[in-house]
Amino acid sequence: MLDLVAGLLIALGTVFFVAGTVGLLRFPDIYCRLHALTKADGLGLALIALGASLMARTPGEVFRIVLIWFFVALASAVGGHLIAAYARRMDRTREGSLRHD
Amino acid sequence: MTDPLILFDLLLAGSIVALAVAVLSVRDLFTAIVVFIVFGLLSALAWARLAAPDVALAEAAIGTGVTGALLLKTLHHLRHFSDGQTQDAARDLTAVQPVPMGVTVANAAFCGLVALGLAVAFLGAPQAGPGFDALVSDAMPHSGVAHPVTAVLLNFRAYDTLMEVVVLLAAVIAVWQIERGLTEAPAPALGMVWAGFARLTLPAIVVIGTYLLWKGAEAPGGAFQGGAVLAAVGLLLLLSRLYVPQPSHRGLARWAFVLGTGVFAGVALLVTGGGRVAFQYPPEHAKTLILLIEGLVTISIAVTLAALFHGREPVALNAPESRHDT
Amino acid sequence: MTPDTIYGMTGIAVFAIGLAGALCAQDRLRRMLALKLCSVGAGFLLVVAAWRRPPDVPDPVPHALVITGIVVMVSATAVALALIRRLQTLEAEDAD
Question: pTM value?
Answer without folding.
Answer: 0.89
